[in-house]
Write a structure and sequence with these properties.
This protein has four domains: 23-134, Immunoglobulins (Immunoglobulin-like, Sandwich); 141-248, Immunoglobulins (Immunoglobulin-like, Sandwich); 254-372, Immunoglobulins (Immunoglobulin-like), CATH 2.60.40.10; 376-429. It has five helices and 25 strands. The chain has helices at residues 2-21, 361-366, 376-402, 407-418, 421-429; strands at 27-35, 44-53, 59-67, 72-74, 79-85, 95-103, 110-120, 126-134, 141-146, 150-151, 156-165, 171-179, 185-187, 193-199, 204-213, 220-231, 237-248, 254-261, 269-278, 284-292, 297-299, 304-310, 315-324, 330-341, 347-358. The strands form six sheets. Strands 10-17-16-12-14 form a five-stranded mixed beta sheet, with no helix packed on it.
Length: 434
Protein backbone atom coordinates (compact mmCIF):
# COMPACT_ATOMS: atom_id res chain seq x y z
CA UNK A 1 0.00 0.00 0.00
CA UNK A 2 2.87 2.32 0.76
CA UNK A 3 4.50 1.52 -2.56
CA UNK A 4 1.32 2.39 -4.45
CA UNK A 5 1.05 5.73 -2.67
CA UNK A 6 4.66 6.56 -3.51
CA UNK A 7 4.06 5.79 -7.22
CA UNK A 8 0.93 7.91 -7.34
CA UNK A 9 2.78 10.79 -5.69
CA UNK A 10 5.67 10.56 -8.19
CA UNK A 11 3.28 10.59 -11.14
CA UNK A 12 1.53 13.69 -9.81
CA UNK A 13 4.87 15.44 -9.37
CA UNK A 14 5.93 14.66 -12.98
CA UNK A 15 2.59 15.93 -14.30
CA UNK A 16 2.99 19.13 -12.34
CA UNK A 17 6.48 19.62 -13.74
CA UNK A 18 5.29 19.05 -17.30
CA UNK A 19 2.43 21.48 -16.78
CA UNK A 20 4.88 24.14 -15.63
CA UNK A 21 7.00 23.82 -18.82
CA UNK A 22 4.16 24.63 -21.26
CA UNK A 23 2.96 27.79 -19.60
CA UNK A 24 4.85 29.89 -22.18
CA UNK A 25 4.78 29.46 -26.01
CA UNK A 26 5.96 26.04 -27.01
CA UNK A 27 7.56 27.23 -30.28
CA UNK A 28 8.76 30.55 -31.68
CA UNK A 29 9.26 31.63 -35.35
CA UNK A 30 11.78 34.39 -36.06
CA UNK A 31 13.05 36.00 -39.31
CA UNK A 32 16.79 35.49 -39.24
CA UNK A 33 17.88 36.54 -42.78
CA UNK A 34 16.74 38.55 -45.80
CA UNK A 35 18.79 38.21 -48.99
CA UNK A 36 19.21 40.70 -50.55
CA UNK A 37 18.66 43.29 -47.87
CA UNK A 38 17.20 45.64 -48.93
CA UNK A 39 15.45 44.12 -51.91
CA UNK A 40 14.72 46.17 -55.04
CA UNK A 41 11.24 46.51 -56.50
CA UNK A 42 10.77 44.03 -59.33
CA UNK A 43 13.23 41.57 -57.77
CA UNK A 44 12.79 38.49 -55.57
CA UNK A 45 14.15 37.90 -52.09
CA UNK A 46 14.99 34.83 -50.00
CA UNK A 47 13.60 34.85 -46.44
CA UNK A 48 14.86 32.47 -43.75
CA UNK A 49 12.83 31.75 -40.60
CA UNK A 50 14.08 29.94 -37.49
CA UNK A 51 11.64 27.69 -35.64
CA UNK A 52 12.62 27.21 -31.96
CA UNK A 53 11.24 24.50 -29.64
CA UNK A 54 11.05 26.19 -26.24
CA UNK A 55 10.16 23.18 -24.14
CA UNK A 56 12.16 20.22 -22.98
CA UNK A 57 9.88 17.76 -24.73
CA UNK A 58 9.42 16.75 -28.33
CA UNK A 59 6.63 18.49 -30.23
CA UNK A 60 4.96 16.86 -33.22
CA UNK A 61 3.09 18.00 -36.33
CA UNK A 62 4.56 21.51 -36.47
CA UNK A 63 3.30 23.63 -39.42
CA UNK A 64 4.48 27.05 -40.61
CA UNK A 65 2.66 29.17 -43.22
CA UNK A 66 3.76 32.43 -44.85
CA UNK A 67 0.94 34.94 -45.42
CA UNK A 68 1.91 37.40 -48.17
CA UNK A 69 0.00 40.49 -49.23
CA UNK A 70 0.88 43.29 -51.71
CA UNK A 71 3.60 43.99 -52.65
CA UNK A 72 4.72 40.38 -52.06
CA UNK A 73 4.03 37.20 -54.01
CA UNK A 74 5.20 33.84 -52.66
CA UNK A 75 7.18 31.76 -55.16
CA UNK A 76 6.43 28.20 -54.11
CA UNK A 77 4.31 26.55 -51.36
CA UNK A 78 3.28 28.90 -48.54
CA UNK A 79 2.44 26.11 -46.06
CA UNK A 80 5.28 23.90 -44.86
CA UNK A 81 4.91 20.88 -42.56
CA UNK A 82 8.02 20.68 -40.43
CA UNK A 83 7.07 17.53 -38.57
CA UNK A 84 8.64 16.98 -35.16
CA UNK A 85 11.01 19.19 -33.20
CA UNK A 86 13.27 17.62 -30.62
CA UNK A 87 13.20 18.77 -27.03
CA UNK A 88 14.77 22.23 -26.66
CA UNK A 89 15.76 22.31 -30.36
CA UNK A 90 16.49 25.99 -30.74
CA UNK A 91 19.21 28.53 -31.39
CA UNK A 92 22.00 27.15 -33.56
CA UNK A 93 20.25 23.77 -33.77
CA UNK A 94 16.79 25.20 -34.55
CA UNK A 95 14.90 24.20 -37.69
CA UNK A 96 15.19 26.77 -40.59
CA UNK A 97 12.40 27.38 -43.10
CA UNK A 98 13.16 29.11 -46.45
CA UNK A 99 10.80 31.06 -48.71
CA UNK A 100 11.29 32.81 -52.06
CA UNK A 101 9.18 35.96 -52.38
CA UNK A 102 8.75 38.30 -55.35
CA UNK A 103 8.46 42.08 -54.77
CA UNK A 104 6.24 43.98 -57.20
CA UNK A 105 8.03 46.60 -59.31
CA UNK A 106 5.56 49.23 -58.15
CA UNK A 107 6.43 48.72 -54.47
CA UNK A 108 7.24 51.87 -52.53
CA UNK A 109 10.49 52.30 -50.69
CA UNK A 110 10.46 51.38 -47.01
CA UNK A 111 9.57 48.56 -44.57
CA UNK A 112 6.68 46.31 -45.65
CA UNK A 113 5.00 43.87 -43.22
CA UNK A 114 4.90 40.17 -43.91
CA UNK A 115 3.01 37.66 -41.70
CA UNK A 116 3.87 34.14 -40.54
CA UNK A 117 1.54 31.82 -38.66
CA UNK A 118 2.36 28.47 -37.05
CA UNK A 119 0.78 25.73 -34.94
CA UNK A 120 1.31 22.31 -33.35
CA UNK A 121 -1.10 19.64 -34.50
CA UNK A 122 -4.68 20.88 -34.54
CA UNK A 123 -4.07 23.68 -32.07
CA UNK A 124 -5.01 27.26 -32.87
CA UNK A 125 -2.73 29.24 -35.19
CA UNK A 126 -0.32 31.74 -33.73
CA UNK A 127 0.53 34.73 -35.92
CA UNK A 128 3.45 37.12 -35.94
CA UNK A 129 4.58 39.97 -38.23
CA UNK A 130 7.98 40.75 -39.73
CA UNK A 131 9.22 43.71 -41.77
CA UNK A 132 10.92 43.29 -45.14
CA UNK A 133 13.07 46.21 -46.29
CA UNK A 134 12.37 47.41 -49.85
CA UNK A 135 14.57 50.05 -51.43
CA UNK A 136 15.07 50.82 -55.13
CA UNK A 137 18.59 50.80 -56.50
CA UNK A 138 20.03 54.06 -57.74
CA UNK A 139 17.81 55.42 -60.48
CA UNK A 140 20.02 55.30 -63.57
CA UNK A 141 18.92 57.38 -66.55
CA UNK A 142 21.23 57.57 -69.54
CA UNK A 143 21.44 58.82 -73.12
CA UNK A 144 20.97 55.92 -75.54
CA UNK A 145 21.42 57.89 -78.76
CA UNK A 146 21.09 61.26 -80.42
CA UNK A 147 19.70 61.85 -83.89
CA UNK A 148 22.36 61.90 -86.63
CA UNK A 149 21.43 65.14 -88.36
CA UNK A 150 23.27 67.30 -90.87
CA UNK A 151 21.96 70.78 -90.28
CA UNK A 152 23.18 73.40 -92.74
CA UNK A 153 23.92 77.00 -91.85
CA UNK A 154 20.79 79.11 -91.57
CA UNK A 155 18.42 76.13 -91.60
CA UNK A 156 16.15 74.41 -89.06
CA UNK A 157 16.21 70.71 -88.16
CA UNK A 158 14.39 68.38 -85.77
CA UNK A 159 16.73 66.85 -83.21
CA UNK A 160 15.93 64.07 -80.75
CA UNK A 161 17.79 62.73 -77.70
CA UNK A 162 16.68 59.23 -76.67
CA UNK A 163 16.90 58.35 -72.96
CA UNK A 164 16.64 54.97 -71.26
CA UNK A 165 15.78 54.12 -67.66
CA UNK A 166 18.35 51.47 -66.76
CA UNK A 167 17.04 51.14 -63.20
CA UNK A 168 14.27 48.94 -61.84
CA UNK A 169 11.98 51.70 -60.69
CA UNK A 170 10.09 54.57 -62.26
CA UNK A 171 11.76 57.95 -62.77
CA UNK A 172 9.65 61.08 -63.10
CA UNK A 173 9.77 64.80 -63.82
CA UNK A 174 12.66 64.21 -66.25
CA UNK A 175 14.16 67.49 -67.47
CA UNK A 176 16.47 67.31 -70.50
CA UNK A 177 18.55 70.41 -71.17
CA UNK A 178 20.96 71.04 -74.06
CA UNK A 179 24.07 73.11 -73.41
CA UNK A 180 24.49 74.95 -76.73
CA UNK A 181 26.69 77.76 -75.43
CA UNK A 182 29.84 76.83 -77.39
CA UNK A 183 28.05 75.97 -80.63
CA UNK A 184 26.49 78.05 -83.45
CA UNK A 185 23.14 76.38 -82.70
CA UNK A 186 20.05 77.82 -81.07
CA UNK A 187 16.73 76.32 -79.96
CA UNK A 188 13.80 77.35 -82.11
CA UNK A 189 11.43 78.61 -79.44
CA UNK A 190 11.90 79.95 -75.95
CA UNK A 191 13.81 77.16 -74.24
CA UNK A 192 16.47 74.52 -74.74
CA UNK A 193 14.81 72.29 -72.09
CA UNK A 194 12.27 69.50 -72.60
CA UNK A 195 10.30 67.88 -69.75
CA UNK A 196 9.20 64.23 -69.82
CA UNK A 197 6.61 63.29 -67.20
CA UNK A 198 7.95 59.82 -66.39
CA UNK A 199 9.94 56.90 -67.76
CA UNK A 200 9.14 53.38 -66.56
CA UNK A 201 11.86 50.93 -65.56
CA UNK A 202 13.62 49.60 -68.66
CA UNK A 203 11.68 51.96 -70.97
CA UNK A 204 12.97 54.62 -73.36
CA UNK A 205 11.66 58.06 -74.25
CA UNK A 206 12.83 60.73 -76.72
CA UNK A 207 13.21 64.41 -75.94
CA UNK A 208 12.44 66.33 -79.15
CA UNK A 209 14.03 69.69 -79.97
CA UNK A 210 14.01 72.07 -82.92
CA UNK A 211 17.40 73.62 -83.64
CA UNK A 212 18.46 76.39 -85.98
CA UNK A 213 22.07 76.94 -87.13
CA UNK A 214 23.53 80.42 -87.46
CA UNK A 215 23.79 81.70 -91.03
CA UNK A 216 27.59 81.85 -90.76
CA UNK A 217 28.00 78.49 -88.97
CA UNK A 218 31.09 76.63 -90.16
CA UNK A 219 30.75 72.98 -91.12
CA UNK A 220 32.12 70.94 -88.23
CA UNK A 221 31.37 68.50 -85.40
CA UNK A 222 30.15 70.37 -82.32
CA UNK A 223 30.31 68.83 -78.84
CA UNK A 224 27.07 69.49 -76.99
CA UNK A 225 26.34 68.90 -73.32
CA UNK A 226 23.13 67.19 -72.15
CA UNK A 227 21.97 67.68 -68.55
CA UNK A 228 19.46 65.21 -67.09
CA UNK A 229 17.60 66.15 -63.91
CA UNK A 230 14.97 63.72 -62.57
CA UNK A 231 13.33 62.23 -59.49
CA UNK A 232 13.28 58.59 -58.51
CA UNK A 233 10.19 56.79 -57.23
CA UNK A 234 10.86 57.93 -53.67
CA UNK A 235 11.16 61.60 -54.69
CA UNK A 236 14.95 61.74 -54.44
CA UNK A 237 16.56 64.15 -56.93
CA UNK A 238 19.25 63.01 -59.38
CA UNK A 239 21.49 64.97 -61.76
CA UNK A 240 23.50 63.44 -64.61
CA UNK A 241 25.56 64.97 -67.40
CA UNK A 242 26.35 63.54 -70.82
CA UNK A 243 27.92 64.70 -74.08
CA UNK A 244 26.75 64.25 -77.64
CA UNK A 245 27.94 65.47 -81.04
CA UNK A 246 25.91 67.51 -83.51
CA UNK A 247 27.08 67.96 -87.10
CA UNK A 248 26.69 71.28 -88.87
CA UNK A 249 27.33 70.55 -92.53
CA UNK A 250 27.04 72.46 -95.78
CA UNK A 251 27.60 70.30 -98.83
CA UNK A 252 30.11 71.78 -101.28
CA UNK A 253 28.35 73.44 -104.21
CA UNK A 254 30.16 74.45 -107.40
CA UNK A 255 29.53 75.24 -111.05
CA UNK A 256 31.55 74.46 -114.19
CA UNK A 257 31.83 76.48 -117.37
CA UNK A 258 34.00 76.74 -120.48
CA UNK A 259 35.71 80.07 -119.89
CA UNK A 260 37.81 80.17 -123.06
CA UNK A 261 38.32 77.98 -126.12
CA UNK A 262 40.03 78.23 -129.47
CA UNK A 263 38.64 74.86 -130.50
CA UNK A 264 35.45 75.59 -132.41
CA UNK A 265 35.44 73.30 -135.44
CA UNK A 266 35.62 69.55 -136.05
CA UNK A 267 39.00 67.86 -136.52
CA UNK A 268 41.01 70.71 -134.99
CA UNK A 269 43.49 71.25 -132.18
CA UNK A 270 43.40 73.93 -129.54
CA UNK A 271 43.22 74.99 -125.93
CA UNK A 272 40.12 74.90 -123.75
CA UNK A 273 39.93 76.60 -120.33
CA UNK A 274 37.40 75.26 -117.81
CA UNK A 275 36.51 77.31 -114.72
CA UNK A 276 35.28 75.83 -111.42
CA UNK A 277 33.42 78.26 -109.13
CA UNK A 278 32.54 77.66 -105.45
CA UNK A 279 28.93 78.84 -105.30
CA UNK A 280 28.16 77.62 -101.75
CA UNK A 281 29.14 78.73 -98.23
CA UNK A 282 31.38 75.71 -97.50
CA UNK A 283 35.06 75.53 -98.35
CA UNK A 284 36.17 73.14 -101.10
CA UNK A 285 39.54 71.64 -100.28
CA UNK A 286 42.31 70.04 -102.35
CA UNK A 287 40.38 70.03 -105.61
CA UNK A 288 41.78 68.27 -108.66
CA UNK A 289 40.22 68.40 -112.14
CA UNK A 290 40.75 65.66 -114.71
CA UNK A 291 39.51 65.94 -118.29
CA UNK A 292 38.49 62.52 -119.58
CA UNK A 293 38.89 61.66 -123.28
CA UNK A 294 35.80 60.51 -125.17
CA UNK A 295 34.92 59.56 -128.74
CA UNK A 296 34.28 63.26 -129.51
CA UNK A 297 37.71 64.53 -128.49
CA UNK A 298 41.13 63.47 -127.30
CA UNK A 299 43.15 65.12 -124.53
CA UNK A 300 46.63 66.03 -125.79
CA UNK A 301 47.99 67.69 -122.65
CA UNK A 302 48.30 66.33 -119.12
CA UNK A 303 44.74 65.31 -118.19
CA UNK A 304 44.94 66.34 -114.50
CA UNK A 305 45.24 69.84 -113.08
CA UNK A 306 45.45 70.62 -109.34
CA UNK A 307 43.25 73.56 -108.37
CA UNK A 308 43.82 73.63 -104.57
CA UNK A 309 41.36 75.17 -102.09
CA UNK A 310 38.33 77.20 -103.14
CA UNK A 311 36.82 79.53 -100.56
CA UNK A 312 33.20 80.64 -100.86
CA UNK A 313 32.66 82.78 -103.99
CA UNK A 314 36.10 81.81 -105.32
CA UNK A 315 37.03 80.16 -108.62
CA UNK A 316 39.96 78.46 -110.32
CA UNK A 317 40.66 77.52 -113.95
CA UNK A 318 42.14 74.45 -115.60
CA UNK A 319 43.61 74.58 -119.13
CA UNK A 320 43.74 71.54 -121.41
CA UNK A 321 44.91 70.94 -124.96
CA UNK A 322 42.50 68.80 -126.99
CA UNK A 323 41.80 67.66 -130.54
CA UNK A 324 38.24 67.29 -131.67
CA UNK A 325 37.16 64.32 -133.75
CA UNK A 326 35.32 64.61 -137.06
CA UNK A 327 32.08 65.33 -135.30
CA UNK A 328 29.00 67.05 -136.61
CA UNK A 329 28.47 70.69 -135.68
CA UNK A 330 26.69 71.05 -132.36
CA UNK A 331 27.61 70.65 -128.69
CA UNK A 332 30.04 68.02 -127.50
CA UNK A 333 30.21 66.98 -123.83
CA UNK A 334 33.47 67.55 -122.02
CA UNK A 335 33.62 65.08 -119.13
CA UNK A 336 35.42 66.49 -116.10
CA UNK A 337 36.23 64.36 -113.06
CA UNK A 338 36.46 66.47 -109.90
CA UNK A 339 38.08 65.08 -106.75
CA UNK A 340 38.05 67.15 -103.56
CA UNK A 341 37.47 67.08 -99.80
CA UNK A 342 34.76 68.84 -97.82
CA UNK A 343 35.08 70.79 -94.58
CA UNK A 344 34.88 67.55 -92.57
CA UNK A 345 37.84 66.13 -94.56
CA UNK A 346 35.67 63.59 -96.37
CA UNK A 347 36.67 62.85 -99.96
CA UNK A 348 34.10 63.50 -102.69
CA UNK A 349 34.49 62.38 -106.32
CA UNK A 350 32.07 63.53 -109.03
CA UNK A 351 32.13 63.43 -112.80
CA UNK A 352 30.54 66.50 -114.33
CA UNK A 353 29.68 67.41 -117.92
CA UNK A 354 30.20 70.82 -119.52
CA UNK A 355 29.30 71.51 -123.16
CA UNK A 356 31.66 72.82 -125.83
CA UNK A 357 30.01 74.29 -128.98
CA UNK A 358 31.40 73.06 -132.32
CA UNK A 359 30.64 74.94 -135.57
CA UNK A 360 31.05 74.22 -139.25
CA UNK A 361 33.89 76.04 -141.02
CA UNK A 362 31.44 78.43 -142.67
CA UNK A 363 29.69 79.29 -139.40
CA UNK A 364 33.02 79.68 -137.61
CA UNK A 365 34.13 82.19 -140.23
CA UNK A 366 30.78 84.00 -140.07
CA UNK A 367 30.98 84.27 -136.28
CA UNK A 368 34.58 85.47 -136.43
CA UNK A 369 35.90 82.29 -134.86
CA UNK A 370 37.90 80.97 -137.83
CA UNK A 371 40.72 83.41 -137.19
CA UNK A 372 41.34 81.67 -133.95
CA UNK A 373 42.09 78.37 -135.64
CA UNK A 374 45.74 77.56 -136.02
CA UNK A 375 46.35 76.61 -139.68
CA UNK A 376 50.01 75.78 -139.71
CA UNK A 377 50.26 75.64 -143.53
CA UNK A 378 49.12 79.26 -143.74
CA UNK A 379 51.55 80.25 -141.04
CA UNK A 380 54.45 78.61 -142.86
CA UNK A 381 53.42 80.18 -146.17
CA UNK A 382 53.26 83.64 -144.66
CA UNK A 383 56.60 83.11 -143.00
CA UNK A 384 58.09 82.06 -146.34
CA UNK A 385 56.77 85.18 -148.05
CA UNK A 386 58.25 87.36 -145.34
CA UNK A 387 61.65 85.66 -145.70
CA UNK A 388 61.62 86.09 -149.49
CA UNK A 389 60.65 89.74 -149.15
CA UNK A 390 63.48 90.35 -146.68
CA UNK A 391 66.03 88.69 -148.98
CA UNK A 392 64.75 90.76 -151.93
CA UNK A 393 65.10 93.99 -149.93
CA UNK A 394 68.64 92.96 -148.91
CA UNK A 395 69.69 92.29 -152.47
CA UNK A 396 68.25 95.63 -153.60
CA UNK A 397 70.24 97.41 -150.89
CA UNK A 398 73.44 95.68 -152.01
CA UNK A 399 72.69 96.51 -155.60
CA UNK A 400 72.07 100.16 -154.68
CA UNK A 401 75.44 100.43 -152.96
CA UNK A 402 77.21 99.04 -156.06
CA UNK A 403 75.31 101.36 -158.40
CA UNK A 404 77.35 104.14 -160.03
CA UNK A 405 74.69 106.78 -159.40
CA UNK A 406 75.57 109.90 -157.42
CA UNK A 407 75.91 109.49 -153.67
CA UNK A 408 72.85 111.59 -152.77
CA UNK A 409 70.70 109.35 -155.03
CA UNK A 410 72.09 106.23 -153.33
CA UNK A 411 71.07 107.69 -149.98
CA UNK A 412 67.55 108.48 -151.19
CA UNK A 413 67.05 105.05 -152.76
CA UNK A 414 68.39 103.32 -149.63
CA UNK A 415 65.66 105.00 -147.59
CA UNK A 416 63.04 104.10 -150.20
CA UNK A 417 64.20 100.44 -150.41
CA UNK A 418 63.92 100.03 -146.62
CA UNK A 419 60.19 100.72 -146.83
CA UNK A 420 59.75 97.37 -148.54
CA UNK A 421 57.60 98.48 -151.43
CA UNK A 422 60.45 100.84 -152.45
CA UNK A 423 62.58 97.79 -153.20
CA UNK A 424 60.16 96.92 -156.01
CA UNK A 425 60.36 100.50 -157.40
CA UNK A 426 64.12 100.38 -157.27
CA UNK A 427 64.12 97.03 -159.07
CA UNK A 428 62.16 98.44 -162.00
CA UNK A 429 63.43 102.05 -162.13
CA UNK A 430 66.94 102.36 -160.86
CA UNK A 431 68.45 98.90 -160.65
CA UNK A 432 71.96 98.60 -162.02
CA UNK A 433 71.84 97.27 -165.62
CA UNK A 434 74.40 94.83 -166.81
Amino acid sequence: MKLFAIAVFAALMLAAAASAEVKGPQIDVKLINQNPDPVEPGDDVELRFRVDNNISATVDDVEVELLAEYPFTILGPALKNIGSLDASQKGASAFVVKYRVFVESSADEGEHPLYVRYRIGNAAWSKTAFDVSVEPADAILGVVSADDINISSGSVADFGVTLKNYGKSLVKDVRVKLDLGSTPLFPLGNSNEVVIESIAAGASETAAFKLVAAHDAASSYYKTGVQLHYLDDSGKSHLRNASIGIVVYDKPVYSLAVKESDVNTPDSNGEVVISVSNTGPAEIRFMEAELLSTADYRVLSAPKVYLGNLEADDFETAEFSIRTAKVRPGNIDLRVKLTHKDSLNREIVNTEVVQLPIYSGRDAARFGLAAKQRNYLVVFAMLGVQVIAAVFVLFMLIDCQKNSMPKYKKTLWTVVILTGIGAVLYYFLARRKK
